[in-house]
Amino acid sequence: MNEQQHSIIPLVEPWLPPACAEAVRRQVETTFVGPGAAAQNFGARLAEACEVHAAVPVSSGTVALSIAAQVLGLKPGDEVIVPAYGVISVINAFAVIGLQPRLAEIDAATGCIDPKRLKEAITPNTRAVVYVDFCGSIGQDLDEVAAICAKQKVPLIEDAAWALGRGRPGRRGGSFGSIGTISFSVPKILTTGQGGAVLAHDEAQRDAAIAAADQGDVNWRRTNLNNAVGSNLRLSDLAAALGSAELDQLEERWQRKRRAYSVLADHLGERLFRAADGDAAMQHIIFVERPDDVVGQLKSQGILAARPYRPQYHHPPYQALRDRDFAASEFWFAHSVYLPFGVALTEEGAARIGSAVQRLNCRFVSPASG
Ligand SMILES: Cc1ncc(COP(=O)(O)O)c(C=O)c1O
């Protein structure tokens, strides 16, 4: 009997098999724990997995987004479009460096920016569009958004926080836009505890990202002269060693994810949110009439579900951004429940969650009718 049949199932638990601890131990023994060769090697391997020119490891996915905007040359006051619903990092990353966020409505069925609603959000002042691969999805809507951005000559930042290595050959998550980013925070398919990467399409982008993460100048360690202002936003070799060990297991990690998702889907059918690309959704989401009741009922059975996100304009610093109707974002806020979804979730754990949800005395609602 698996331990997840009786114990508490947390919302997120990372999967860290012994090879992870072994890799960190070996790195410690080298005494190279700061940013160095292991981080560089991790970046090179990430670039391969994402099929991009280069990947620059940094200290978080939020920082990766800020750097991506800087690499594209965005300056304080420039307008950047972000999805109206989702994690606060995606808007804070830009506001914190002085950019002016503007919201684009999501498609209630995908959780991603709705290509049809993107057109109304773009203004003559728009300097970048940020598309989040929601739940890891690399769907057709991403191609549509990329085409709209290309036509309007607006750079696209693809936030592939959840989509490392996902997609089709030659078109992996984070490679669709003008620049891409990844996060390695705890819930992601690969975690370094905290961390992220900027996915660059050419040498100039790579150098600009390295400079932005390392005191503003790509050469200062050689020249001992800094030509620009910057900060230290690098990833340590210790974290990179863990990341590299997990990259060795990337396919296995996705298989685990797909197996748990598939067991849950067997129980919940159409009630379980499906990613737009048809692959397993990284987060396990259902929509119900009374989400707080469902979270409470599941908690009483040791299943820790949550309601993590809001429309960005609910947060006081962003209230003024509510300048249109955002019915889909409101629907997601009003009805979504995120069931446990970490990579450590076993098939037995997923079955227990699925059965518990089936037994709930609750009304489900559909984003399609929202
Ligand atoms: C879609 C998305 N983008 C960016 C981030 C930010 O990543 P981090 O937590 O590594 O800063 C997250 C984090 O959850 C995320 O979900």
Description:
By secondary structure, the protein is of the alpha/beta class. The chain folds into 2 domains: 18-247, Aspartate Aminotransferase, domain 2 (3-Layer(aba) Sandwich); 250-369, Aspartate Aminotransferase, domain 1 (Alpha-Beta Complex), CATH 3.90.1150.10. It is built from 13 helices and 13 strands. It has helices at 18-30, 37-50, 61-71, 89-95, 115-121, 140-152, 203-213, 220-223, 237-248, 250-268, 291-299, 327-335, 347-359; strands at 54-58, 79-83, 85-86, 100-104, 126-132, 156-159, 167-168, 171-172, 179-183, 196-200, 284-287, 310-311, 336-339. The chain has a 7-stranded mixed β-sheet with strand order 1-10-9-6-5-2-4, sandwiched between helices. Strands 3-12 form a two-stranded antiparallel ribbon. Bound molecules: pyridoxal-5'-phosphate.
CATH homologous superfamily assignment of the largest domain? Type I PLP-dependent aspartate aminotransferase-like (Major domain)
Order of helices and strands: HHEHEEHEHEHEEEEEHHHHEHEHEH
Estimate nothing, just give the exact number of structural domains: 2
Largest sheet: 7 strands, mixed
Structural class: alpha/beta
**Spatial strand order of the main sheet:** 1-10-9-6-5-2-4
If you compute it from the alpha carbons, what radius of gyration comes out, rounded to the nearest whole angstrom?
20 Å
Mean pLDDT: 96
Give the CA-CA distance, first to last residue: 40 Å
Provide the list of bound ligands, each named once. Answer: pyridoxal-5'-phosphate
CATH class of the largest domain: Alpha Beta
The fraction of residues in strands falls at 5-15%
Q: The CATH topology of the largest domain is what?
A: Aspartate Aminotransferase, domain 2
Instruction: State the helix count.
Output: 13
- How helix-rich are the residues, as a percent range? 25-40%
Q: In CATH terms, what is the architecture of the largest domain?
A: 3-Layer(aba) Sandwich
Q: Using DSSP, what is the number of strands?
A: 13
Question: What is the overall silhouette?
Answer: globular
- Which segments are poorly predicted (pLDDT under 50) over 5 or more consecutive residues? none
